[in-house]
Every structure is written in C-alpha cells, then in structure tokens.
Design brief:
The protein is an alpha+beta fold. The protein has 2 domains: 207 residues, Dihydrodipicolinate Reductase, domain 2 (2-Layer Sandwich), CATH 3.30.360.10; 80 residues, 2-Layer Sandwich (Alpha-Beta Plaits). Strands 2-4-3-1-5-6 form a 6-stranded mixed sheet. α3 crosses α4. The radius of gyration is 21 Å and the shape is globular.
Length: 309
C-alpha cells in the first residue's frame, strides 16, 4: 500500500514533497506559516474592509470558504493537525497533535486589526514548530495562534484563502512555499499529483524516513520563550486604570515599547493596546494573573505574540 497526503497540509502547494525531497540536504529547525485558508480569508478581509469577525465569517460561509460549523477552522484545530504533520516531516519526529498548543481567531476585534496596522503589523493565524535545545536535549515546540506579523515579513502580505509555509534550513536559509490553500481545484490538484506518483510507483516513505525510525521528541515548555507581545484590554475609563496595569507589568518584569489608548465609548469603556519589549512569556502570564480580579478590566485581555520578535 502507498500512503500519500500532499493535500492534507496546504491545499495545492507541494510543500510535503518540497520538505521531504527538496530540502533533504538541510537540517530544518523551524517551520511555520499560514495553514488555514478560512482564517486567512477572514483576517485579511477584516483588514481590508474594516468589518467585525462575525460579519466576515458569514461572508466566508456564503463563499464556501467556511463550513456551516466553522469551529474546526476558526479555533485553530485544522491548522494544528497540519502543523503536526509539517513538524514530523521537518524534524523526523513522531506526529504529536496533542502537543500542539492551539488558539484560534474568534476573539479578534476589528479594533485589533486597526491597532496592529497602526503599530506596523498585520494579524495572521500562524502555526509554528521548532526544535528547542541542542541535539543532546532537543525538545519540540508546537503552537497555533494569531500573531502580529511585521510588514517586512512575507507572511504579512499573504491575503485571501491562501496558505504559505516557511521552512528555515541550515544551508538553504529561508524557504517559502505559497499558493492556494482552500477550494476544490487546489485540493484536487494535490490529490491528482499523489495519484500520479503512485501510478509511477514513486511512493517511498510517506515522511522523511520510514515511520519506524521517527523519533519521539519531548514537548518543550513555553514559559521561558522570549518575544515581544501585543496586549489589548478593554477597560473602564477612569483615573488610575493605566497605572494599575503598568504596576502589574512592572511587578512581572515587563516593560512597554508602544501604547495606544482610544477615547472612551458611549458605554464608558476604553481600549488599551500595547506592544511590550521582548520578555519571557511567563511575565505576560503573571501580568494577566495579577489583573484577573480587577474591576478595571471589562472582559478578558487579548494576547498575541509578535512573529520573529
């Protein structure tokens, strides 16, 4: 029996063959990208049209980019499945879907899109897997989450129902695979390509090596990871709120790189959006915990890491 699954990861993009064969001379330590066409259509349409999430989701469903029950896509589950396959191909590891931290795009506001743009970023749902540690104690980190992507990065310019995968090889440098990630024709293209390979008897191992030789890598912790972070809070518009937030950040060892505060709305709330200086994720967790019982916050804060920062 022959196992082929090119269409399982990035629609019509031949990324599996590219990683398995084209990048075979490289050690790939990091693979990431936009792995769900539905979410990318929603986020880029929110960006271009200034619409809220619910409006754009309905449009995506009408155009056939989203299912009647879209939770598999918009909660990051579909992208997490794809990421676990890409990680296995890249690192020679056993697929570990359960080890993927997954968070979707349901809670992103039009205001987040606007503030990200003002700060020089675009929001994309990013799946990222990388090796954490050296060869003697290598762990695997896997996460799907909305991220702020700098405008200088090629993923910031991927729009519509498009997928893009970046692999970083030790000899090749950055490799970018981009193309249609959703729809019947791109998917059919990948399926037919697999059938042609099978007809030619070009089957070989489905992964980069025989399945029995794939290594089980331990899961990497995330608290120590260093990044800049976007933090958005809806707060009561009153004296002392910003001081309360910055005090919690100070106690957690976190500092602010840039901050935007909107004028109060009719309901007496204001939106605070900030980007932190690079710091450990634990500092963000400690800040959120310190503010958890504050009556100054109206709803749950939105946290998005900045890609590459």
């Amino acid at each position: 029996a022959a196992l082929k699954f090119e269409a399982a990861v990035a629609g019509g993009i031949p990324v599996i063959q590219g990683l398995r064969d084209g990048a075979a001379a490289n050690r790939i330590d990091r693979v990431y990208g936009i792995l769900n066409g539905t979410c990318n259509f929603i986020l880029s349409t929110m960006e271009s049209d200034g619409l809220d999430f619910a409006q754009v989701l309905a449009d995506a469903q009408a155009k056939g980019f989203a299912e009647a029950d879209p939770s598999f896509d918009i909660d990051g589950i579909d992208a997490a499945h794809k990421l676990s396959i890409l990680a296995s191909l890249s690192f020679g590891s056993i697929i570990d879907f359960g080890g993927v931290e997954a968070r979707g795009v349901r809670k992103i506001l039009a205001a987040d899109i606007a503030q990200a743009k003002t700060l020089g970023y675009r929001i994309r749902l990013i799946g990222l897997a990388e090796i954490d540690g050296d060869n003697g104690s290598a762990n695997i980190f896997q996460r799907v989450e909305p991220c702020l992507v700098p405008l200088s990065h090629p993923l910031a310019h991927v729009t519509g129902a498009t997928n893009a995968v970046v692999a970083e090889g030790n000899f090749s440098g950055r490799l970018l695979f981009q193309g249609a990630g959703a729809g019947d024709k791109p998917t059919a293209s990948a399926v037919v390509a697999d059938l042609v390979d099978i007809a030619r008897k070009e089957t070989g191992p489905a992964f980069s090596m025989p399945a029995a030789e794939l290594e089980r890598l331990p899961r990497a912790a995330s608290a120590h990871r260093i990044s800049k972070t976007y933090l958005r809070m809806l707060v009561a518009d009153r004296v002392g709120v910003l001081a309360e937030i910055t005090a919690a950040m100070r106690d957690a060892g976190l500092s602010i790189e840039s901050l935007i505060q909107t004028e109060a709305s009719d309901d007496g709330s204001a939106l605070i959006a900030m980007v932190t200086h690079a710091g450990p994720e634990q500092a963000i967790n400690d800040t959120i915990s310190a503010l958890a019982n504050s009556d100054s916050l109206l709803g749950e804060p939105m946290v998005m890491h900045i890609l590459g920062a």
